[in-house]
Design goal:
By secondary structure, the chain is α/β, with parallel strands linked by helices. The protein has one domain: Rossmann fold (3-Layer(aba) Sandwich), CATH 3.40.50.300. The strands form two sheets. The protein has a six-stranded mixed beta sheet with strand order 6-7-8-3-9-10, sandwiched between helices. Strands 2-1-4-5 form a four-stranded antiparallel beta sheet, covered by helices on one side. The longest helix is centred in the last third of the chain and has 17 residues. Bound molecules: adenosine-5'-triphosphate and magnesium ion. The site of adenosine-5'-triphosphate has 10 residues, from helix 1.
Length: 238
């Protein structure tokens, strides 16, 4: 479980988030929505321990992120996978090398075992034929899927998707939404999805959190979100 309490984040005198409280439960999909620039990516980066808050705490599996030493922080980060807003594949490495990288860095598996793991994960995302291709030879949707295979290779407990379907055509976007649901059902995972994409939200129907004007203005089920009469939510849902 991730528990965020009284969290405020600023850059210089620009206040981004103000005293927010938020709980991310295990085996659940949490969808974070809000207009562009409201601090969704900033919130996710702070959960990864990449941005320090002005005040408040982020407790991941009972450990306060900002009280951990370097080793403990690394161990906690290993439980969390992040699919960045761009796919963030390394352009100089082929698909196999990209997906294998976390295993090479964090485990002492043999080459054969790594090849097995990588092949299995690429199969899961429907891409086992692209092992030796370079990222530049892949479409946007394929890059996302390779990034997804890499994100799950260390069997994370939490996976954070930052705009997983943005910039993809509706058919590919729908495939990615299906893939997120498939991973959720096959692995014991808590998924956190940041998105603007109402098609993706309608399909996945997770627990919805909406950030607006530095605060959380909605925290509840998809159905309640869909029926909320407030203007900022109606404008978003339409
Ligand atoms: N490292 C940084 N230094 C200074 N300001 C930053 C930094 N990162 C983000 N910001 C600012 O914080 C605000 C929130 O940014 P963030 O990227 O979280 O928005 P977002 O909600 O993810 O938007 P989008 O939907 O467009 O991705 C923006 O005003 C941005 O300029
Ligand atoms: Mg963002």
């Amino acid at each position: 479980m991730i528990e965020i309490k009284n969290l405020s984040i600023s850059f210089g005198d620009q206040e981004i988030l103000k005293k927010i409280d938020l709980t991310i439960r295990e085996n659940q999909i949490t969808i974070i929505v809000g207009q562009s620039g409201t601090g969704k990516s900033v919130l996710m980066k702070s959960i990864e321990g990449l941005i320090e808050p002005v005040e408040g705490s982020i407790v991941i599996d009972e450990k306060n992120l900002f009280e951990l030493n370097k080793h403990e922080l690394n161990e906690t980060r290993k439980k969390m996978a992040m699919l960045f807003q761009g796919s963030a594949l390394l352009d100089s490495m082929n698909v196999y090398q990209n997906v294998a990288l976390p295993l090479i860095e964090h485990t002492d598996l043999s080459e054969d075992a790594i090849l097995n793991e990588v092949t299995e994960k690429l199969e899961l995302v429907g891409l086992k034929e692209v092992l030796t291709k370079m990222p530049s030879e892949l479409s946007g949707g394929m890059k996302k899927r390779v990034a997804l295979a890499r994100a799950i290779i260390l069997k994370p407990k939490y996976i954070i998707y930052d705009e997983p379907t943005t910039g993809l055509d509706p058919i590919i976007a729908n495939e990615i939404s299906n893939l997120i649901l498939k991973l959720q059902s096959q692995y014991d995972i808590a998924s956190i999805i940041i998105t603007h994409d109402m098609d993706c939200i309608r399909k996945i129907k997770g627990h919805i959190i909406m950030i607006h004007d530095k605060k959380i203005v909605f925290d509840g089920t998809f159905d309640d979100f869909n029926n909320d009469e407030r203007k900022i939510i109606k404008e978003f849902v339409k």
